[in-house]
Amino acid sequence: MSGIATTCHLVNVQSKKKIELPHEKTKVIGRTPETEVQDLFVSKRQIECTADTKNYSVKLKPVGTAISGIDGYAMTKGKIYTVGHGHRLELRLGHHEYDIVFEPPPEVAEESAHVAKKHKPNFPLFGTKPQGDEAKVSVPDGGSWSNVDSKELLVYTSEKCKASSKVAAFDIDGTIIKTKSGARFPKNGGDWELNFHDIPRQLARLTEDGFRIVFFTNQSGVGKDPHKIKDFKRKIVNVIEKLGVPVTALVALGKTIYRKPALGMWNVLLESNEGVQVDLTESFYVGDAAGREKNWAPKKNKDHSSADRLFALNVGVKFYTPEEYFLKAKRVPFSMPEFDPRHLPDSQYPDVKYSRPNVILMVGGPGSGKSHFCKEALLPLGYVHVNRDKLGSWQKCVKLLRDSLERRESCVVDNTNPDKESRARFVSVAKEMNVSCYCFVMATTVQHMKHNNRFRELTDPSHVPVSEIIINSYKKNFQEPEMSEGYADIVKVPFAAQFDDAENEKLYRMFLLEK
């Protein structure tokens, strides 16, 4: 070594921007302004880094949701890796690369490399090796299982899988297989048979034509139950063995970014494609969740969702139902979601120019954008924010409203206020204080609200999920505001989309709901 290093930096491979790692002080890096990373798969707290300038080493501890890497090797969340000068850190495996650089550098690079070599991960690309009962699931042709994000996603890869620019992707249940019992859902892991007898031959032909065969499936019913996971893994292995072709199977166990129609599984597939760019015009996806109505064929039930069709739209590949692809059947009518996030109107908030003091009564369900409107358009004008989520009860909201009006302060009541009864409590206070009350109704549709809430679930870990039951309850209880309730005016407020970064906007403009 050439003495002791004075500094240690992470140097961005593309921009050459440096991030200093202080001696023996832990620094957390991730999706932050310092790194300028906007990738939603990278956590704000992705990796803990602790440099030792005396020994030319850096301890790295992955703590975020994405799989991080060192020199192309995947790292296990929570495990500490010691690396040295010249090694390359990837915030997300294959993405957002930083070289570890000490100044002055060590004279003998091999010493630093020796430190790193002892700690190189030796498990599959996608995550940790299976442990315990999971490792006992036998696999054909040398294939292997791995998991991502604490088993939010399971991945099976046949040994003979090859990277390809052409991807032939399929759902599993209702597409590749169906229940042997005839039940809508399988009774156990053995309750399956091929959906069409000709599927193995058609998949073999695709393999011969250079396609990579991939399965994408949502399996939230399996969850994190070890016994269910083991049973489902055995089922997948048996299906692939029956087909006789190499397959990559991705299984989303939760309701995170990996669940279709979101693109989490697709992005993981791209990471495993050895740098080969996928040609979307040559690739396609086949699935039975296609939004078809009841009796799309004689005595056929309505499709349970549109997740497969929407997944293909998000990816940008051709879509087929199983009947269209395997049986060459004609296309049948289907329904698209009421809300299409690809086409957002260029809306602006209304100007608020009323004599003071006044009361603005908001009306809108969870995810309608009313709180954002209050924050952006009203609070900067000095309106007092009357909000039940903060105060705890409508009685406290009424008290704050009255106290503020007595001080001649304008107020905005930022509650859902779906019906006449809930609104009357605040209208009566305004009337009592002899001030005008304006009703601002969010024009956001119920489906748009559900989309917004799903978007917040995927992008904001602190956001408490809002169930569809609550949104549907708002819809059920909603009564259109009328001037006879005592308003000076009723104003429709459009949803005005605003984004912090390009990645958020890209995700928002995708289909996130399953129907």
**How many beta-strand segments?**
24
Q: Which structural class best describes the helix and strand composition?
A: alpha/beta
CATH class of the largest domain: Alpha Beta
Q: Which overall shape is indicated by the principal axes computed on the Cα atoms? A: flat
Q: How confident is the prediction overall: mean pLDDT?
A: 89
Number of helices: 13
Strand order of the largest sheet: 11-12-17-16-13-18-19
Computed CA radius of gyration, to the nearest angstrom: 28 Å
Q: Please, could you describe this protein's structure?
A:
The protein has 13 helices and 24 strands. It has helices spanning 109-117, 199-208, 226-243, 264-271, 307-315, 322-326, 370-378, 388-391, 394-406, 420-432, 446-459, 468-477, 502-508; strands at 7-12, 18-20, 26-29, 47-52, 57-62, 69-70, 73-74, 81-84, 88-92, 95-103, 144-148, 153-157, 167-170, 177-178, 193-194, 212-218, 248-252, 284-286, 318-320, 358-363, 384-386, 411-413, 436-442, 489-493. It is flat, with a radius of gyration of 28 Å. The chain is 25% helix and 21% strand. It folds into three domains: 7-117, Tumour Suppressor Smad4 (Sandwich); 132-326, HAD superfamily/HAD-like (Rossmann fold, 3-Layer(aba) Sandwich); 358-496, P-loop containing nucleotide triphosphate hydrolases (Rossmann fold, 3-Layer(aba) Sandwich), CATH 3.40.50.300. α5 (307-315) links the parallel β18 (284-286) and β19 (318-320). The protein is α/β, with parallel strands linked by helices.
